[in-house]
Design brief:
The protein has 1455 residues and is of the alpha+beta class. Among the domains are: 85 residues, Beta Complex (Tie2 ligand-binding domain fold), CATH 2.170.300.10; 233 residues, Galactose-binding domain-like (Jelly Rolls); 310 residues, Jelly Rolls (Sandwich); 77 residues; 31 residues, no CATH class. Helices cover 22% and strands 22% of the residues. The protein has 20 helices and 81 strands. Strands 1, 2, 5, 6, 7, 8, 9, 10, 11 and 12 form a ten-stranded mixed beta sheet that branches. Strands 34, 36, 37, 39, 40, 41 and 43 form a seven-stranded antiparallel beta sheet that branches.
């Protein structure tokens, strides 16, 4: 014996394509195929000799016992009684159900075992039984080639008795072993199946390679154990009398074990296992067991990686990751490797391959390192065999006799030695020596105070090198006062620079330079406020004039509050903030102060006892002719005031005009606020003299007082001052509702306010806004047409309205008024208080009145509310609320005073107390309803008063052939849709209709809906006008009669008119009672005969026809023939006799058929010379020959056809030849003419339409002319038309009539041009619109020049005005500040603006067309120039300004 294997060649590219990106698996198949030798059974019938067995049967003639002889394999032809175990392997052959495996009779314990050559993946098992299925059985599997077994599943009809202790399910997991009772019933008695699936499909499998799943689906052996036969109650199989055991055994048709080669997801095909028989490979459908592995795997089941592919651990392939085995990287220094789990984990799961036996002085997992005392040559690659070279280390400073790093070659130095070769001391060490175990000694220097470049100490002596500012002994830690950061910065010993105001002192931490900060101050130098805090500006202590108490006249007693309304000495004037106007004021606005009036400010919030500068911000009031913004002015008290913290002061300020002020200036001034600015010099030990000089040089105080932008120097000094006097930074205190967050600006503390919210803390609404809340403030939006002021209530937003106006915005009329803004009282005739706000239509009219002015009565009432006649109820016939009111309204005759009701539909009478024709109702009953339309479905005459009952509504006179209480159905004898007035007379056929339903003198009765007539027996159809199948003679006296035909008829059985029976194919006879020729004579079947009979019948028919024709050629008996004709006649008679004989033949013998054929040939020879025979016969003989007639007819037809053919040819030859091109051109001409015709037709229609419009217009003109009764008007109009003159128009424009020649005319004209070709119009003395506008342009240019000169003069006079102000109000040291204030005054319009206006005027002149409109525009432009001139003059007056004489009185609070 020998074995061989045939390798299976599979294209690698194809396999690789399937397995590159995910797992791949071989296809499933039947593991039984090809493994008959590996299949065995513990019991097989007839194994040792013939053995009888019986089946269960109930038919008497059925064979019940058979013989089994399984000594030889099964053979379909000579050994069908063999039932060996290999018969259960599926072959799909024609003898599938003729062979099976069968066990010995009466044996309960039988097992079938399949032994596989290697590990396979099992899918499911299907057993198909010829006998009853076992009463109990179990399936086992083995993974160790039968050494140990595990149960797959138990099967039993009664699990508790056959397998006690086994769960009956359902299974809780995939590997749960249970007993299944579904496959052990008695039915079916044959072809019953047992199915076992390796994995229950009811469970979701997340990881098919989990150990418990692999344990369930892989096997090397499968065993089926039958433990108990199904015996149908015959439990005593041991009885020999009846031998019941011969009926009970196990018999299997098929055993299918579905599975595949198990390859762990690394193969898609398999090949035979080494050592298997070669004949197995040739059997189709065999599932081989050795995988054709991919992913660099090997093994029967691809259970390990290939040699030298061990860089990652072997794993089964997954759905998304094939887990390909990766090649080891040994850099060419080894050809073998192994996987090391510790190495894999240490690399973070990157590489686990360890190379074996590294060559070329290499070591390491990947042969990546050189051996000790060698290192990688940087000039060579790691794969180079000569890559490892010897170490080059200084033995004085290196350890281990010059051991170096195997990668970089860096030597392993002593503790205090450095360098690639260990040939020098580390930084900070000195004294390189071989005797020193550490190699070098540490420098005794403090690095923070030493010069570190190139070394902190001498490399031989160890002498330290100290940096500047540090003591000569660097090893002593020393720092100068006010400095920090020894060695921690580029420049050692940096100054502290602690903030004068934000830090407690000027010293700081010597380590990090951190100063000790005041509360809420942060930063190294304590110069910044902490988050949520700020540093106050110089003018932080600001007191708004709006919050001050009023002082009137010379008295010092304050009033309660300052009013908003004008007319008093003090008035609050709010100013709205707009995006395009700079904000030069604080708070809501200003206080308008009359000359001599004053304000009292309360001061009680000072943080420190200091000298304070008192600052007053105000604006001069400009007369109403100036509509421009004036930048605020500042007045500063000459002498600072000393105020103490924690005390309350009252500051009274009285405002007076200077005696020598401009008399044209206003008697009022606008006061914004009063401020207290701390004097920096009064703060002790705050800053140095140089800082004070900088404070003055950069004019920090003046800029802060004027609220101008500050230089950075000022910000720092003012911030430090704020921190000093406030003991740190101040809390922002941003209002939660009014601000966007809790943070504010670092300097000034301004919070980020929401829309329309103002204040440093965002705690109030801006002027002309209200409703402070989480969303900010909403604008008042007071309607100027109805409000007396623009301000509204700060909380509710209510605007102050005129007397008759209401609404929050004063934008609608009050109740009882309409027509905003000219609100007028509602006009409702005293019958309503409210009306529509827009139209004035009255609402909710009383006393049954209605209308826009309650001027009429509602329906059901009459009267005249305008004449104060109340509305009274109409009696039609009763009141509207009684339920018996049947009118829409009523009317009162003004002359007779009688009442007339307008009745509702269906009512009639003076008081609507009766129903109209076609209506009904009980009007007289109390509470009865009105008249309703009679429901007669439009089948009555609505004008007929008697058409329906006037009380009940029953229909009495139905029309359109209808009847019923609602005329809802057709009358008898009619049918159709009565509701659609479509009742038609029944049209029944009286011969076919039931006599009782057709009375004389009236139409027959039919179905009232469908019109179906009641038919007699045998009649059908909607009108009963047809006989049913099997009947005929509809026109007979008795109607349709039965056909009386035999069953051989077709459908219908007989002709419905004549009663003739209509036979079906194959039947004949008057009553269709016999079979036709060519059909079997067994009636009524009459089956068709053989096709040969049809041919025979055709031949017989031909013979009959030939015989009949020959009789026409035989002369009558007794006639004399010419000599020589007797012989032909005798032959014809003989032939005729034979034809008669053949025609009467009924037999079908072959000789007779041949005789017929011979006779046919003889007839041919006879009929060929028939003309010669005819000529030899006596001419007087009467012979009927129709051929001459036929010949004549044929000749006539031929002649007529020839004539028609000749005519056709003549017509074709006479037809002219048509040119296709000419036809195309003619067609195009026709199309063009058609288009022209259609266009002309459209023009004609349009002309007709225009003519009609002209006629209409002419008629309208005639009507208008006819309405003119005064002829003088027409004459006056004619005179005005004639009076129109171009000369006058020319004079108005150019200043002259223009009736002279252009060379002589001083003012030119419309048609005049100068030598340059430009139009010439106007002159120096001309008064036309064009020269006037030209002079206005020159005037505007002159105004421009004058304004520029005035501006220069104003700038020159500012210094003089400044000096006057300083003398009366300002200290000498603040002259420079006040000069800047004066220089900061801006005019409302710059020269560029004036130039722009002049350019607009010129643009108007260039587009001069309509002189009247252009003249109006020029006048407007001239007026604008005049207004500018007045503004300039007003500014010049304002420059002399409202000088304020300020008197300040300080009152200290008594407390």
């Amino acid at each position: 014996n020998f074995s061989f294997s045939v390798p299976v060649l599979v294209p690698g590219a194809l396999l690789q394509e399937d397995c590159d990106v995910n797992s791949c698996h071989p296809q499933l198949g039947d593991l039984m195929v090809g493994r008959a030798a590996q299949l065995s059974a513990s019991s097989t019938c007839g194994r040792n000799g013939p053995q009888n067995y019986c089946i269960l049967g109930y038919l008497e003639d059925e064979q019940k016992c058979f013989k089994c002889d399984s000594r030889q394999p099964y053979n379909l032809y000579n050994n069908q009684n063999s039932h060996q175990i290999e018969n259960v392997i599926t072959t799909f052959g024609p003898e599938r159900k003729m062979k099976w495996w069968q066990s010995e009779n009466g044996v309960h314990q039988v097992s079938i075992r399949l032994d596989l050559e290697t590990l396979f993946q099992f899918s499911h098992l299907v057993l198909t039984f010829k006998s009853f299925r076992p009463a109990a059985m179990l399936v086992e599997r083995s993974k160790d080639y039968g050494y140990s077994w595990k149960v797959f599943r138990y099967f039993a009809e009664d699990c508790a008795s056959h397998f006690p202790g086994v769960s009956q399910g359902p299974a809780d997991s995939t590997d749960d072993v249970v007993c299944d009772s579904r496959y052990s019933a008695s039915e079916p008695s044959t072809d019953g199946e047992v199915v076992l699936k390796a994995l229950d499909p009811s469970f979701d499998i997340e990881n098919p390679y989990a150990p418990h799943i692999q344990e369930q689906i892989t096997l090397t052996n499968l065993r089926v154990n039958f433990t108990h036969l199904f015996t149908l109650g015959d439990t005593l199989l041991g009885r020999k009398k009846r031998n019941p055991q011969e009926k009970y055994y196990y018999a299997l048709y098929e055993m299918v074990v579905r599975g595949s080669c198990f390859c762990n997801g690394h193969a898609s095909m398999c090949m035979p296992v080494d050592g298997t028989r070669g004949d197995v490979l040739n059997e189709p459908g065999v599932i081989h067991g050795r995988c054709v592995c991919q992913h660099n795997t090997v093994g029967t089941n691809c259970e390990r990686c290939q040699d030298f592919y061990n860089d990652v651990p072997w794993r089964p392939a997954g759905q998304s990751d094939p887990h390909v085995c990766r090649r080891c990287n040994c850099h060419g220094h080894s050809e073998t490797c192994h996987f090391d789990i510790d190495q894999y984990q240490a690399s973070g799961g990157v590489s686990g391959g360890v190379c074996d036996g590294c060559r070329h002085d290499r070591m390491g997992p990947q042969c990546e390192r050189c051996r000790p005392y060698l290192y990688q040559d940087p000039q060579l690659s790691m794969e180079d065999p000569r890559g490892c070279i010897s170490c080059d280390c200084d033995l004085t400073g290196s350890l281990d006799n010059g051991l170096c790093d195997p990668v970089s070659g860096r030597c392993v130095c002593k503790e205090n030695v450095a360098g690639d070769r260990c040939d020098r001391c580390k930084f900070g060490f000195y004294g390189f020596s071989q005797e020193d175990p550490t190699g070098c000694q540490r420098c005794r220097c403090n690095f923070l105070g030493s010069v570190l470049i190139p070394y902190p100490c001498d490399q031989v002596t160890g002498q330290c090198c100290c940096s500047d500012g540090v003591a000569s002994f660097c090893h002593i830690y020393f720092d100068l006062p006010g400095y920090w950061g020894l060695g921690n910065t580029v420049h050692t010993c940096s100054p502290c620079n602690c903030d004068h105001g934000g830090a407690y002192s000027s010293t700081c931490s010597s380590l990090d330079g951190q100063c000790q900060c005041l509360p809420n101050m942060v930063g190294r130098s304590c110069g910044d406020p902490a988050p949520g805090h700020f540093l106050a500006a110089l003018d932080y202590y600001l007191y708004e004039a709006e919050n001050a108490a009023p002082l009137e006249g010379k008295s010092s007693s304050p009033l309660r509050s300052i009013p908003l309304d004008p007319g008093s000495a003090l008035q609050i004037v709010p100013r709205e903030r707009t995006p395009d106007v700079p904000i030069t004021w604080t708070g809501p606005g200003f206080v308008r102060v009359l000359d001599g009036a004053g304000l009292r400010f309360t001061v009680d919030n000072l943080p420190a006892s200091l000298d304070y500068h008192l600052v007053i911000r105000y604006e001069p009031e400009v007369r109403a002719t100036i509509h421009c913004s004036i930048i605020g002015w500042v007045a500063i008290l000459d002498t600072p005031v000393c105020l103490n913290a924690g005390r309350r002061y009252y500051v009274d300020i009285t405002f007076r005009k200077q005696p020598n002020s401009n008399p044209q200036s206003s008697s009022h001034t606008l006061v914004d606020s009063m401020g207290l600015i701390p004097k920096m010099e009064s703060v002790q030990d705050f800053c140095s003299q140089s800082e004070l000089d900088s404070f003055r040089r950069f004019r920090c105080f003046e800029l802060a007082a004027e609220q101008e932008t500050l230089p950075d120097v000022c910000y720092g000094l003012i911030g430090s001052l704020s921190a000093r006097i406030h003991n740190g930074a101040m809390l922002c205190r941003c209002n939660i509702q009014g601000s966007h967050g809790p943070y504010c600006s670092k300097f000034g503390g301004l919070c980020e306010c929401k829309a329309n919210v103002v204040g440093r803390c965002c705690d109030s609404c801006a002027p002309l806004n209200f409703g402070f809340g989480p969303n900010g403030c909403a604008p008042c939006e007071c309607d100027r047409r109805g409000a007396v002021a623009e301000l509204c209530d700060q909380v509710r937003g209510q605007c102050p309205c005129r007397m008759e106006v209401g609404g929050r915005r004063c934008d609608r009329c009050l109740s009882g008024y309409y027509g905003f803004p000219l609100c007028r009282p509602c006009k409702c005739n005293g019958l309503a208080e409210l009306c529509d706000q827009d139209t004035g239509a009255c609402l909710d009219c009383r006393e049954h009145s209605t209308g826009n002015n309650c001027e009429s009565c509602v329906e059901g009432y009459f009267g005249d509310p305008v004449s104060r006649e109340p509305c009274k109820p109409c009696l039609c016939p009763d009141t509207q609320s009684s339920g018996r009111f049947f009118a829409s309204t009523c009317n009162k005759d003004p002359e007779s005073g009688s009442l007339t009701c307008d009745c509702l539909a269906g009512h009639t009478g003076l008081r609507c107390d009766a129903c109209s024709a076609g209506f009904y109702g009980g009007l007289t009953a109390p509470g009865g309803g009105g008249c309703e339309e009679c429901l007669c479905n439009n089948n009555i005459d609505p004008a007929d008063s008697d058409a329906c009952d006037s009380v009940t509504g029953e229909c009495l006179r139905c029309l359109h052939n209808t009847q019923g209480p609602r005329c809802q159905s057709c009358k008898p004898g009619y049918y159709g849709d009565a509701l659609a007035q479509d009742c038609k007379e029944c049209s029944c056929d009286r011969q076919g209709t039931d006599v009782t339903q057709c009375p004389l003198g009236s139409p027959c009765f039919c179905d009232p809906l469908t019109g179906q007539c009641p038919c007699r027996a045998g009649a059908v159809g909607t009108l009963c006008d047809e006989c049913a199948t099997g009947f005929w003679n509809i026109q007979g006296e008795s109607g349709c009669q039965p056909c009386k035909c035999d069953p051989g008829t077709d459908r219908p059985a007989c002709n419905p008119l004549t009663g003739e029976c209509l036979c079906r194919v194959g039947v004949m006879g008057i009553f269709c009672d016999e079979c036709a020729p060519g059909y079997d004579q067994v009636f009524p079947a009459c089956l068709p005969c053989h096709p040969c009979a049809v041919l025979w019948a055709d031949n017989v028919t031909d013979v009959h026809r030939a015989a009949q024709r020959m009789r026409t050629f035989i002369p009558p008996h007794g006639e004399q023939l010419e000599p020589g004709h007797s012989r032909q006649l005798q032959r014809m008679l003989e032939m005729h006799s034979k034809l008669d004989y053949l025609g009467n033949l009924t037999g079908r013998s072959l000789p007779l058929v041949k005789d017929v054929e011979k006779l046919n040939l003889g007839a041919v020879h006879i009929f060929l010379p028939h003309r010669k025979l005819k000529d030899s016969i006596d001419p007087n003989a009467i012979i009927v020959d129709s051929s001459s007639l036929l010949n004549t007819e044929i000749d006539n037809i031929h002649h007529e056809f020839k004539m028609l053919l000749d005519n056709l040819r003549n017509k074709i030859s006479e037809a002219p030849t048509l040119d296709l091109k000419e036809m195309q051109e003619a067609l195009e001409k026709i199309r063009k003419q058609h288009a022209d015709f259609m266009a002309d037709e459209k023009k004609v229609k349009e002309a007709e339409r225009a003519l009609e419009n002209s006629m209409d217009t002419r008629q309208e003109i005639k009507d208008h002319l006819s309405s003119c009764s005064i002829l003088g008007d027409m004459e006056g109009l004619e005179k005005k038309v004639k009076a129109l003159s171009v000369a006058k128009l020319n004079k108005n424009i150019c200043g002259g009539p223009g009736d002279e020649e252009c060379s002589k005319s001083e003012c030119g004209g419309a048609l005049c041009r100068d030598f340059l070709g430009q139009r010439e119009c106007g002159g120096p003395t001309c008064k036309g619109s064009f020269p006037v506008s030209h002079n206005a342009t020159k005037t505007a240019e002159q105004v421009e020049n004058d304004l520029i000169d005035l501006l220069q003069k104003l700038k020159d006079s500012k210094i003089k005005a400044c000096s006057q102000i300083l003398i009366s109000m300002v200290a000498p040291e603040d002259i420079e500040n006040l000069v800047k204030v004066v220089l900061a005054i801006q005019l409302p319009g710059s020269p560029d603006d004036i130039r722009s206006m002049i350019q607009n005027i010129r643009g108007v002149l260039t587009n001069f067309i309509d002189f009247k409109e252009d003249l109006k525009k020029l006048k407007d432009q001239a007026k604008t120039a005049q207004d500018l001139l007045e503004k300039a003059q007003a500014i010049r007056l304002a420059s002399t300004m409202f000088f304020i004489c300020v008197t300040v009185t300080l009152y200290k609070h008594a407390g």
